[in-house]
Write a structure and sequence with these properties.
452 residues; alpha/beta; Rossmann fold; Arc Repressor Mutant, subunit A; Trna Endonuclease, Chain: A, domain 1; 5-stranded parallel sheet; 4-stranded mixed sheet; 19 helices; 11 strands
Length: 452
């Protein structure tokens, strides 16, 4: 995937910060976003575009001894800045001070990738940077960009008032997965005659995450069968271990409990009581709160119009790839361990139409959000008592929106448009209007693969 897609807004922000650093005084930019979303590629692109104006340095913070890292960084400085550095520099503080001294007479961009890993190398680095930055910022012309993919750590470093780098950033950019329009553009570049089924499969598996899309497109996996086959291709695919490697870094030693909760949500237990019953645990409210507020992995869903404190709450995994990974990879680890990947592939294919139906609903919600036409986007549900057959009558509307002008729309989402039942949707809308949007006209419609 050599072509550079989207990211115009974020690139403009970076260019703006860089020009302020070069024309006024140094600027500190924090770039966050989930792993594989394209943070490093974005800054590389910036440095490539501006290399004639000023050089760029790239420091990757791995889990190595500080002296080993600093030796590597020093070589980067000597090569890219053409500056003399004495041998024997072993601390990042010493190197940073030398760089800021250079910054008094030379403009450059310094990009520190996986910045949060300094906490494992030498946590004093954060205090050292704070002290040096405060002393040198006004005298230098350095554009310092730091990125990190462990969200909880980056939040702690820059948003916790007790941390030395709190308030030091001039700009924070949270890089998101690609938009629905960009995913269309990418798939179209690799398959001119792609179908909406192909597009839905790409969305269902990758959720718009750049690296996952790149893997599939570079291997010409442009339809559902090829994508699922590639995911299950053993040593040729990193998808098998991806969820575990990403989330264990986030969760640390508590990952077992969190993995169990996410597994249940991915398989349809969406209320706290359902999750607790499935896991045989009495109280999981604390863990659910941490997964939502600290890690941002799950989110609460309430019916449109419900108060924020309402107990009518469902949980969903926000990230499409994690939802996919827990549904199939984590749940069927035993098949992977014995090398029976063909069986896993068959399970995925058999379940695909059901699983992707939920992804289709999420696609339309995302598309509506990107249109900026709405002030409310959600769903609505309520139990309606017992019907004539003695069963509990559930009223649920897949998507309910309210435009900026106040117009209300209600949609039923079906993979096959022929399964859309306008009479039943109207019945649900009338039930909703007993509690919400009374006396207001509600436009109804069906959404399917055809409308993607």
């Amino acid at each position: 995937m050599k072509k550079f897609y989207d990211r115009e807004r974020e690139m403009n922000q970076l260019h703006d910060m860089q020009q302020q650093a070069f024309s006024d005084c140094s600027r500190f930019v924090v770039l966050t976003g989930r792993r594989r979303v394209g943070k490093t590629s974005l800054v590389y692109r910036l440095m490539e575009e501006t290399k004639e104006q000023a050089p760029g340095l790239y420091f990757f913070v791995g889990r190595k001894a500080e002296a080993t890292l600093v030796r590597t960084f020093c070589e980067e400085v000597r090569t890219k800045l053409d500056e003399y550095l004495p041998e024997g520099i072993v601390s990042f503080r010493s190197l940073m001070q030398l760089l800021l001294e250079i910054g008094k007479r030379k403009k450059f961009t310094l990009f520190i990738d996986e910045f949060q890993e300094f906490d494992n190398v030498n946590s004093d680095v954060f205090s050292d940077i704070q002290e040096l930055w405060d002393r040198y910022k006004k005298q230098t012309n350095v554009c310092l960009i730091v990125s990190g993919s462990i969200f909880r750590m980056m939040e702690k470093i820059f948003k916790d008032e007790g941390q030395p780098l709190f308030g030091r950033d001039d700009c924070t950019i949270r890089l998101q997965p690609f938009t629905t329009a960009t995913m269309r553009e990418i798939l179209g570049d690799y398959k001119k005659d792609y179908t909406n089924e192909d597009l839905l499969a790409l969305w269902t598996i990758t959720g718009g995450v750049a690296r996952y899309i790149e893997q599939l497109m570079n291997n010409r996996c442009t339809n559902m069968r090829k994508m699922i086959h590639y995911v299950c291709s053993g040593g040729d695919s990193f998808f098998i271990n991806e969820g575990r490697s990403v989330l264990i870094q986030e969760f640390g030693k508590q990952y077992g409990t969190y993995f169990s909760i996410l597994d249940q949500i991915a398989h349809g237990d969406v209320t706290q009581s359902e999750i607790e019953a499935s896991l045989g645990v009495k109280v999981l409210g604390g863990q659910l709160k941490i997964l939502e507020e600290k890690y941002g992995i799950i989110q609460k869903k309430r019916p449109v119009g419900a108060r924020s404190g309402s107990q009518t709450v469902r949980y969903e995994i926000q990230d499409n790839f994690f939802r996919f990974w827990f549904r199939y990879i984590h749940r069927y680890t035993s098949l992977i361990e014995i090398g029976n990947l063909p069986a896993l592939e068959q399970i995925m294919r058999n379940d695909y139409s059901t699983f992707s139906g939920i992804s289709l609903e999420r696609w339309f919600r995302q598309k509506f959000m990107e249109s900026h036409r709405y002030k409310t986007i959600g769903g609505w549900w309520q139990s309606g008592g017992v019907n004539a057959k003695g069963n509990k009558d559930e009223f649920e509307i897949d998507i309910v929106t309210q435009t900026l002008d106040g117009e209300v729309e209600a949609y039923e989402v079906k993979r096959n448009h022929q399964r859309y039942n306008p009479a039943r949707l109207q019945e649900k809308v009338e039930m909703m209007q007993r509690h919400l949007f009374r006396g207001q006209e509600v436009k109804i419609g069906g959404l399917s693969l055809e409308e993607m």
